[in-house]
Amino acid sequence: MKPGLSLRVSQHLALTPQLQQSIRLLQLSTLELAQEVEQMLDENPFLEVEPDNLPQEDFGLAQADTPVQADGAEIDFAPSSIATSDHQISREGDFDASDSASVSSGSDESPNWEGDGTVEVKPDDAEWGSDAPARKTGDDDGEFDSMTLARVHESLTEHLHRQALCLRLGDEDKAALHFLIESLNDDGYLEDSLESLARGLMKFDDMEMLEALLHHFTVALRLLQSLEPTGVGAHDLSECLRLQLRERLADENSDTVQIAMAVCNQPLDLLARRDVRRLAQQCGASEAHIKAALALIARLEPRPGRRFVEVERNFIQPDVIVSALRTANSAQVRFQVRLNPDVMPKLRVHDIYSNAIKQGRGSEHQGLSQRLQEARWFIKNIQQRFDTILRVSSAIVERQKNFFIHVELAMRPLVLREIADELGLHESTISRVTTAKYMATPLGTFELKYFFGSGLGTETGGNASSTAVRALIKQFVSAESPKKPLSDSQISDMLKEQGIECARRTVAKYREALKIAPTNLRKAL
To answer: How many DSSP H helices and E strands does the chain contain?
Structure first.
């Protein structure tokens, strides 16, 4: 091959460190952003939390209060506070993950945070701060401490051990009972057989030792199943139900309890299907008695350890708050959209350090000047993040205003591209903004993605939101007759009567998403 020189003109996308950080901060949740801020405060000495007693400039979109008229309702939102660079930065944030395939990141060099190349320090770096309060740590006096509440929670094993202290047992039986209690799962079931538990304690096969362990385990199991809650220590659901019925049988020796015991001895699939006719044949009872027994079984607890399970408490802090305002002389509702100040980090550049860099000259200060510019860009990117969230939230409220007035049935179809085209952003940017970001409204707290949904065709040629269709299905099911519940085909026909084209399979998919049982399980006996 003959060597030669040639010129080639090409275009490629280069993401600067500032832009990469802006994209990454945009897709973080509130908790992840707080962790990112904590890490940056530890790493960058020029960054500090703004004290509450210093005056701050108005931050971002919250400084404006411009109502927008839209079909009888008003939505309060404002343009971006960064008037000169907002469009440019929003465009810069307009990239998918696929765009990074052609990114030249310069892995051999450290990120350059110098921006336009100047390292001149502004006279007052406090202008980079925001007006949001500092993030609370939860250690202040008088605040609600969820960890304290979690510590006082009593688990199932602790509850059973406390009851076992009242029993007068020998050392072997006490140890066996302790071992069985510790072998229970969260629902209170003993999943392993007594023989497998005994063999797990043996180092070698010894029939005499195995029989002795089985004897102690059998006595301990009988004691365990006599403790509260009733049904604990069962090996399966059928045994759990029988233990609870046995206790009822000791209190009231009725025919219903005895028939219920017989039903629980049958295969559980008959009970799950509520096959009254087959159960009546197997148990030798009338269908009326079987229905009464099934009603009694339905009131039993299939998971005895349910109330002792420590449920993880997840508290959601909304990023945006929507308030409904009514004027005294008008019946119209005005919706005000604002950022939640509790989730906005209150940061500024350290005055003393920045002034020291300003007075110093020479190449030895170049590295510190870069860290100072990095702190400035971090604060600016956080401001841009909240500005974008507020712009997107305001556009969502404007388009879904009927939802806030007439609830889910008035939800309109909405896709990401509509908001992207309106704000001049990319769909990927809207997707990042609406993921793990929440909006507190008078109707509850919703993720921003909740307001987006596909549409189903109507007879008039329009579209109905899938969220509205699900709400309509839920309304139909709640109004149905318990003795004759609606089938998926009937619900599909009812939707067609409303002018909504929805197939039976689509109805079944929406019904399962709403966690509504099928027709045979909703039918009252």
So the answer is: 22, 10
